[in-house]
Design a protein that fits this description.
Layout lengths: L15 H19 L4 E2 L5 E3 L1 H4 L7 H6 L2 E3 L5 E4 L4 H10 L9 E10 L11 E10 L4 H18 L4 E7 L3 H17 L6 H5 L14 H8 L10 H16 L5 E2 L11 E9 L7 E7 L3 H4 L7 E7 H7 L12 E5 L4 H16 L4 E3 L6 H11 L3 E6 L2 E6 L5 E4 L2 H12 L3
Parallel strand pairs: 1-5, 7-8, 12-13, 12-14
Antiparallel strand pairs: 2-4, 3-4, 5-6, 6-11, 7-9, 9-10, 10-11, 14-15, 15-16
Helix pairs in contact: 1-5, 5-9, 12-14
């Protein structure tokens, strides 16, 4: 006999008890973001591969190693989305959202796919909550974006949260800095890892992320981008910091902070959690003022972030799993077909009245049905028998005869909303 299929390595099944916790994350995100004017958007799970090649960066690990790319039946190259910002900008341009009042504020809860080493809280299929504000370069957009993620992490009880903050400047100022950094790396090329050495021309800033001992020693004396911002970039970053201080959000400047995507400009940030160990990132993002142009659109500023659902749950304080609500359990005290039909109709009528109801479906004895009602935490049990309908209050233990299914529903509604 062949082995039973299992979920692919690096993926996972979301079981009912886990789904309940994940729903609390979604609910918290909806409350936090929609109160600030963000509206939900979802993009397809796969996109034209060029959406990512043109924006994420040819030299990034995502494009070089981690994307799930395939050719469809029409010969087109498609990619399962490794991130969501580029697809959202594609949708912004495609659907003419520039005609709306700016900035356009959008949020999402989407699955993403990357081929990387699976470990605690990091999977090859994972879920992200994110927010994007497109169409304004005001520093207040940056600060508000950071504030919203800070608020979400706080509501979810994520432990040991720290905010790291930096600026990558505009493309022009970063280009001048790249030359300085490349010169520094070439001067110490013999001490660098092979990977960093190969990327000196393509993406020298990624050297800051290396954990190679020799590379880290070299980067300790490397020039820092924060010291080479032009006047406008420096002023923009100063205003972001001042707004965060006004909102009493603590942060630490990290000149070595480099996001893993090429489209970032100016403000970048990351929230970490002390509860996660070495792989401490919970969520982060930044400004991406050149992203629309990379996709063939007009110059359009943007700012956003993404936070991993699995990472947030792993770092959050433990909380009880919410139990499903069952206000009415419909039990059978006989086997007549008409009783089963009446029970089915009663459950349907209760649900139409917004009463959470469950129906006996497993052929249990009446004693077994009462035990099942107890396991479900049912407030009432309607017992249908040849002599009529008895309604039992599971809290008081009292039981009374009721005239009809409609009377059962009315009684349960009165019990839920007394007076």
């Amino acid at each position: 006999m062949s082995e039973r299929p299992q979920a692919p390595r690096g993926t996972f099944d979301v079981l009912p008890e886990q789904s309940a916790l994940r729903l609390t994350v979604e609910s918290a995100a909806r409350r936090t973001l929609e109160a600030a004017g963000y509206r939900r958007i979802e993009t397809p799970a796969f996109e034209d591969t060029d959406v990512f090649r043109r924006t994420v960066g040819e030299s990034t690990d995502i494009v070089q190693k981690e994307m799930y790319t395939f050719t469809d039946g029409g010969g087109r190259s498609l990619t399962l989305r490794p991130e969501v910002t580029a697809p959202i900008m594609r949708a912004y341009l495609e659907h003419g959202m520039h005609k709306l009042a700016q900035p356009v504020k959008l949020w999402y809860l989407s699955s993403c796919f990357r081929y990387e080493r699976a470990q605690a809280g990091r999977y090859r299929q994972f879920w992200q909550i994110g927010a994007e504000a497109i169409g304004s370069d005001d520093p207040a957009v940056d600060a508000e974006s950071i504030l919203l993620l800070h608020a979400l992490l706080g509501e979810l009880g994520v432990r040991g949260v720290r905010l790291r903050l930096a600026s990558l400047g505009t493309a022009a100022s970063r280009a001048r800095y790249r030359e300085l950094l490349q010169a520094h790396l070439r001067a110490h090329e013999d001490r660098l890892s092979d990977e960093v050495r190969e990327r000196i021309d393509l993406n020298p800033l990624r050297a800051f992320d290396s954990d190679h001992p020799g590379t880290r020693e070299v980067m300790a004396s490397a020039p820092l981008l924060l010291d080479h911002l032009d006047a406008e970039d420096a002023e923009h970053f100063a205003q972001v910091q001042e707004l965060l201080r006004t909102a009493e959000i603590p942060f630490e400047l990290d000149p070595a902070l480099v996001r893993g995507l090429d489209y970032y400009t100016r403000t970048v940030f990351e929230f970490t959690s002390d509860a996660l160990g070495a792989q401490s990132g919970v969520g982060g993002g930044g400004r991406y003022d050149g992203l629309a142009e990379e996709l063939g659109g007009p110059p359009t500023p943007g700012m956003g972030w993404a936070a991993g659902v699995e990472r947030m749950l792993l770092a959050a304080e433990e909380r009880p799993v919410p139990e499903p609500v069952c206000d009415l359990y419909v039990a059978l005290a006989g086997e007549a077909p008409e009783l089963r039909a009446t029970a089915f109709a009663l459950a349907a009528e209760a649900r139409r009245a917004q009463v959470p109801a469950q129906l006996e479906l497993a052929g249990r004895s009446l004693k077994g049905q009462m035990k099942q009602a107890g396991r479900l935490g049912a407030r009432y049990v309607a017992i249908l028998g040849d002599d009529g309908i008895a309604l039992k209050d599971m809290e008081s233990g009292e039981q009374e005869t009721v005239a009809s299914p409609s009377a059962v529903v009315a009684h349960v509604l009165r019990g839920r909303h007394p007076g």
